[in-house]
Amino acid sequence: MNAETLTLDLETSLGRFEARLRELVDSDVEFIRLIQDDLVTAGGKRIRPRLVLLASRALGGVPREMELALAVELLHSATLLHDDLVDDAETRRGREAAFRKYGNAVSVLSGDYLLSRVLYLLAETGRLELVRLFADVARQLAEGEVFQFQVAALGEYSKANYERIIAGKTAALMRACTEGVALLADAAPMVREALRRFGYEYGMVFQMRDDYLDLMGDGQVLGKPVGGDVREGKVTLITLHLLERAAEEVGPILARRAAKPGDIARLRELAIATGAAEAVVEAITARAEQAVAALDPLPDSPAKAQLIELARSEVRRVR
Amino acid sequence: MNAETLTLDLETSLGRFEARLRELVDSDVEFIRLIQDDLVTAGGKRIRPRLVLLASRALGGVPREMELALAVELLHSATLLHDDLVDDAETRRGREAAFRKYGNAVSVLSGDYLLSRVLYLLAETGRLELVRLFADVARQLAEGEVFQFQVAALGEYSKANYERIIAGKTAALMRACTEGVALLADAAPMVREALRRFGYEYGMVFQMRDDYLDLMGDGQVLGKPVGGDVREGKVTLITLHLLERAAEEVGPILARRAAKPGDIARLRELAIATGAAEAVVEAITARAEQAVAALDPLPDSPAKAQLIELARSEVRRVR
Q1: Domain that holds residue A99
Q2: Among the four residues A76, A260, B27, B118, which has the most C-beta atoms within 10 Å?
Q3: Which has more pLDDT, B43 or B145?
Q4: What is the CATH number of the domain that holds B184?
Q5: Using one digit for the tens of pLDDT, what is the confidence trace for A177-196?
Q6: Inter-chain contact B128–A126, Cβ cutoff 8 Å?
Q7: Within a 13 Å sphere around the CA of B289, how many CA atoms are in the beta-carbon half?
Q8: How near does any CA of chain B get to the CA of A130, in Å?
Q9: At B91, phi and psi to the nearest 5?
Q10: Could you give the number of structural domains in chain B?
Q11: B160: chain A residues, CB-CB within 8 Å
Q12: ipTM
């Protein structure tokens, strides 16, 4: 398969993915249908299914890749529905947060409905090891989210805690995308470890880039105002670096959650001036190269090249 | 096994159940531990694990009964955590609702944590059919809860909708308790169908009794004020019968959610005077006998006798 046929093949598969997704989230209950329309079928970049399909193609194609792609996306969507509530998010994927339209109840329970469909898909793969992998990932997801809440509530900010939070809430599921493929392929331990590490490291890069742009990005490109994390009291890598370099000025801004006009602009200035921004960009770059290096055991292929490109494209977004 | 050794054996197994439950819900994350202490280990009647253990003993004992008992209880606990939020419940099992203490976020996410443990237990049983059964039940649970919300929001009250709601939110999981045992036993289709039907019918009886006592019971015995469903705008079988018999007086009381002093007392009077209460008690009795009849294909045993007694004890609570 060359790069061109890979692209075509991927688009075809993603088309089938969208069709199956709609079928899967359908329900006799009208209120469930409403919320699914709103969230699941609204799109998004389908980054997790893409990871599954690319990893599968890097191994020459594996059985039941579609069920895995659907399961990771639905688990992700369920998390979004439950997080909307937690984050009190004003917008999600540029739309009104689901729970504002239909109430908390329907958000949480529709998330649970999606989780039941994940269970169904796992059974469809016929692989108990996949159930075990998802049990592990779902546990890390929930622990990561609660830990993030705990760190905010108790003010336990540190780089170690930041790593633990994003490992749980993001990298664990990305890891399931690629390790799940190895599992479906009955791949050799070395290959499984390579895909596991790539998924995990890529997930870390993805979240670090997301958090960096939340403060340092362009609000127009992001489709939301910058500084949301600071206003919600979420400490990320950039704020930790800022605190190290300019605590006297940054501390009070974080404490008041950037409530004063100009606070966010000032944090951005300080991030550039103190080198905090550069330090985070370097951390993201190093991590992306770790992701790339993890793939060494895999033979070269257009799919492997696209996985590498995926990791490096995250770096380009912050440079 | 006679009735006495059954009782002993059951208590021993429930003791092991409590110990394993505590291990399972443990987490490195402090906020998860707090909420688990609050809810899961606070007890409750463990009615679902009891159903599993009794059904298992009615088949002479099945492998992995403990994992099934733990999985149904954790799924139930997760539902309670998510429902606290939905119902805005003031108390649950006589304690402060979990979310009031730690915020919505921790309730929802701790529920998700429990769901990840259910997945782990299902993998431990080594039976994909059980994953499939739980996928089906979890779907019905979520659909039942959302449908209840939808019926309340749109005022779509009817006996058919009431049946659909309680089938989803209660009977489906009770059915999984007993059908799950048949599945673990690789039981003959007739036995599986018997246990499936018993669990389902018993679940219906259980919820109908619960809803009946919510209005007609003794607040002291219940440990909460009577009339909670009416005040939350939930229509149950007794209110539907009341509407049939005394719409002019009952309609306005339901519309104002019993906001006037004396409203609940008046509904109770009317339920007796119009025969609405008697009609519901008769429906519960008939359903309990359907549950009992479902067990006909099983050979007589002390465990079968206890299952029958369980169904009939629900009837005694309303007579």
Answers
A1: 3-316
A2: B118
A3: B145
A4: 1.10.600.10
A5: 999 999 999 999 999 999 99
A6: yes
A7: 5
A8: 9
A9: -140, 155
A10: 1
A11: none
A12: 0.91
